[in-house]
Each structure stands twice: as C-alpha cells, then as structure tokens.
Amino acid sequence: MKRRRLEELFAPHEDVLYCIFIQLDLRDCIRMGAVCKSWLSVSKWSIITRSPQLPWLMILPNFNSESWCNIRARSQLSWRMRLFNPNSNPIPAEIEENSLTKEEKELRCFLSISDNTIYDNIKFPEISGKRCCGSFHNAGARGWLMFINDDNLEMQLFHPWRRIQLQLPHHSTLQRERPFIDRSRNPLVVELKIRKSAMSDDESLLVVIHDFWYLGFWRKGTSERVCDVIYHKGKFYALSPMGSVGVVRFDTHKAYLEIITEKIELDHYQTLYLVADSVSESFFIFVRKCLVLPEAIEEAYVFRKTWGFKVYELGVEKTGEYKKNPVKWDASIQNQSKETCPHTVACVDWSDFQYFVRCFPDALEDVLLSAAGS
Amino acid sequence: MASTSNSTSSKIITLRSSDGEVFEVEESVALESNLIRRMMEDDCANNIIPLPNVTAPIFYLVIEHCKKHAEMKDNKEKKKELRSQGEELLKSDPHTYSNLMEAVNYLDIKSLMDLTAQWLADFLKGKSPRLIRELLKIKNDFTPEEEAEILERNRWAFD
C-alpha cells in the first residue's frame, strides 16, 4: 500500500532533476529547493556547479522616474544647506511631498554580468532611502553591504540575503586630514561623503573612500585619490581615477597607494569599479560605459544611461607581478532593458574632476554578492 | 517475430522491456540511444537487447517521441505539436512524465533529454514551491521549522 502511494509521486532521479535545474535562473533554482528534501539537495548541487554567477551589480529600478529626480534634488539641497549651516534641517519639507513611495525606495535590481540576467525588483525594506557605499566579498565579510543615510550620516552593515543589520560608528568618528571648516569655505565643495569601503578578513579594519576619493580608515587618514577599494587575499587594493590598481600600504600616520599596474585607456564618462574574483587570485576592473541623455541634462547633475561594461582581468604572473590582460568581456545590457524596467541610471559626475555637488544616491552601486544559499 | 525481409536499407533491432514485452525498432531510431549504440559497438547486442529499467508503456512513449523528433528536424509545426504533447502529459500525468524522463536518461538519448528537461524547466519557471507541489503531486517532507529556515535564508527569491 505504501509503495503504491510513493509511485504516484513525481520523483525523477537526481541526475534528471539536475538537467532541469541548470536550465533555470538562480532565483528559480533556489525556489525549487523549497519544494522537498531531494529537490533541495539537487538545487544546492546545481547552484554550486553552475558557471560563475558573480559579480552582480546592484541597480536602482526605474531610476529615471520623476520621483527619483526629486530625491536627487532633495539630496543636493540637503548637502548644500549643511555646508552653509551644519545644524540646519537637512530635509526641505516642500520637496519631500513628491518623493518616492515607500515601496519604490525598497526596490533594487541586480544584473548578473556573467550570465547576462537581470533579477528585477527585489524588496529590501531595511535599506529604504539609503545609499550603498561598500560591498565586501572576502572571508568573514562576504556578502555584507555598507549603507549610509545621507541625511543623518548614520551608517550600517547589511546582509541582503540573510537580512541582518549591524550598526556602525557614526560618520563623525572617521578622522579626516583637514578639519571640516577649511573646505566648507567654498560652498560648492562637499565634505564627508563615503563613496566606497572595504573590510579586512577579521573585520577589524574598515577602509573607506571619503571626501573626494581620499582614502581613509578608522583612526587614520590619507591624501591618496582613489575611486574604489577592495580587500582581497590579505591586502587592500585601490583603483586610481586613471585606472591604475595599487596596493594600499599603511604607515604610522596615513595610508598610501603603491601602484602595481599600468593605466587603462579611458573615454569620457566612464566609471570604474574593482571587483575580486571569488575563486581565483585574479580580480577585475569594470569600466562602466554610459551615454549622456541629452533630454535629461540639468544644471546640477547629468543623467546617464548605462549601455555596457568593459571588463579587464588582472592576473598574477609567475613572478608575483600583476599583469593586465586584454578585455575579458565587453558586455552590453542594451537589449535587456526592453522587456524589463529601463535601466537608465543617473550617476555621479566624476569625469570632469570639478568638485561640484553632483553626488546623489548613486544609481549604480557595485556589489559582489555571495551566491545565495550556497 | 516479424519478418525483416521488407526492410532492405534499415536493420531491425529487437528490444525487451522490463515487463517482458518485445519491441522491434528500426536501427536508425534505436541508435538515437547512446546506451543501445554502445551495446551494439561492444557486440553484445546480437540477440534481444534487454532494458531492465524501462517498462513497456513508457518505452512506447519514448519511441513515439524519438520518431517525432526525427521528423521534426526542419518542421516547425511538428516541433510545436511535440512540445504541446509533452506539456499536456506533464500537466495531466506528471508521474508518467517523470518515468519518461527516467527512461530517456537511462537510454541516454541526448536530444530527447534536452527537450523534456526544457519543457519541465519552462513549466517550473516563476512558480512557487507550494504550487509546484500541488501540480506535480510532490509530498512536502520538510518540517515547518526547516521550511521556514529555507524561506528565511533566501527571502529575496520567494517574494
């Protein structure tokens, strides 16, 4: 009797299930793992053995909507006001009315570069209205993202897949090379903004890029200009705005950059990201290629449409030196955006090196995520 | 056994299913199966080839699909027909569909394996675990705690 009941079940052999699961995208595959125990083990197997899923880029959905424009305008105003009077109320009330709905603020999309899939509109109530300023992918720090609230400068770590939050020390505890008052003489200059950050394996050292590409870490400051930083195999690596990669060294007073690679040729309007390979020694430089949207240019900020990524691989030579290999991918996300939401992004205008206030919630935040569930 | 005199170009191969039924299949169809191909190459297929893991009704289905698959190569309509048949079977009788996949896997018929896996993958896309259990009549063998933990770990995938 019992045997007959078992026979009625849909129970293909694990090899057969595997053939099915590898045809599903990551999200569907994880979902299948909740059906029953044997499906869970095949789902895990399929996640581990599929082609590298990382890195993922985090994108704000539907960024060109009117409400996002309002949010950027609000952010700009709040920064300007703070410069003139640090104690001012950071949120002008009249702009607040038109801002995003609560739901819109919670949504993020993810683009998997390696298999060119977009995972749409995933909800994260915890990071509503906050800006991502760091992603960690090494050892104990793996999977954590760092968020900052640009209004009150409160910072926290957030693990998106496990949904854990950790509060960080307030932004004001970060030491700066110059006192705040010096730079605020020029009202167009913004101080105090964390752009990127990296964490060491034992989670004891957090390196951040603040102000305008200056390296800093808790307790010590520096005057190096860099545009991204990661922790990889025991060292901090940083990327200079010219596209050279360097190792971050620390002496007693400050951090500095020891350049190890040649420059990358850059066109105008490109943004650089440094991303470590999760399995090998090498890491990648991502060059984000954007188009300026002429209809959307306003005085204070520029709207950009991401139309692809150029990726350089940095591998270790036998001599221990790093060598920049030719382009590994030249991925385009142009065709993806038709069916899903338009992944138009507005971004910080770094390219002209003028220290104007153009730094609003980054539309494109780079993240490297641990393969969920594995 | 039926006479093979009417077939000059194509050899007939005799196979026996696990429940003892004997099939005669054209060589071109039988060779779609890598298992049978290997057995013939190893010269251990002179007489009747036994297939201990495949029952007669399932073997009928496999042969039917193999023939259709051979016909459909340049024919879009046949392709559609085969696909809708497969999906129909999956919806009406998931148990047989699962047996069909098992048999295809055992017989190592690559083309058919890809097809049946693709249909099922398309069927699973975007469906919730609960709906899948219901449609395919799968028993939920997780404890409530285990299930809650899986959902909690990957909430993004289930929202």
UniProtKB/TrEMBL annotation, chain A:
InterPro entries: F-box-like_dom_sf (IPR036047), F-box_BR-signaling (IPR050942), F-box_dom (IPR001810), KIB1-4_b-propeller (IPR005174). Pfam families: Beta-prop_KIB1-4, F-box. Residues 110-323 form the KIB1-4 beta-propeller domain. It comes from the Eukaryota. Gene3D superfamilies: 1.20.1280.50. Residues 14-48 form the F-box domain. This is F-box-like protein. It comes from Cinnamomum micranthum f. kanehirae. The lineage of its organism: Eukaryota, Viridiplantae, Streptophyta, Embryophyta, Tracheophyta.
From TrEMBL, chain B:
Involved in ubiquitination and subsequent proteasomal degradation of target proteins. Together with CUL1, RBX1 and a F-box protein, it forms a SCF E3 ubiquitin ligase complex. The functional specificity of this complex depends on the type of F-box protein. In the SCF complex, it serves as an adapter that links the F-box protein to CUL1. Pfam families: Skp1 (PF01466), Skp1_POZ (PF03931). The lineage of its organism: Eukaryota, Viridiplantae, Streptophyta, Embryophyta, Tracheophyta. SMART domains: Skp1 (SM00512). Pathway: Protein modification; protein ubiquitination. Residues 11-70 form the SKP1 component POZ domain. It comes from Cinnamomum micranthum f. kanehirae. GO terms for biological process: jasmonic acid mediated signaling pathway; protein ubiquitination; ubiquitin-dependent protein catabolic process. This is SKP1-like protein. Part of a SCF (SKP1-cullin-F-box) protein ligase complex. InterPro entries: SKP1, SKP1-like, SKP1-like_dim_sf, SKP1/BTB/POZ_sf, Skp1_comp_dimer, Skp1_comp_POZ. The keyword Disulfide bond does not apply. Keywords: Ubl conjugation pathway. Belongs to the SKP1 family. Transmembrane segments: none annotated. Residues 110-157 form the SKP1 component dimerisation domain.
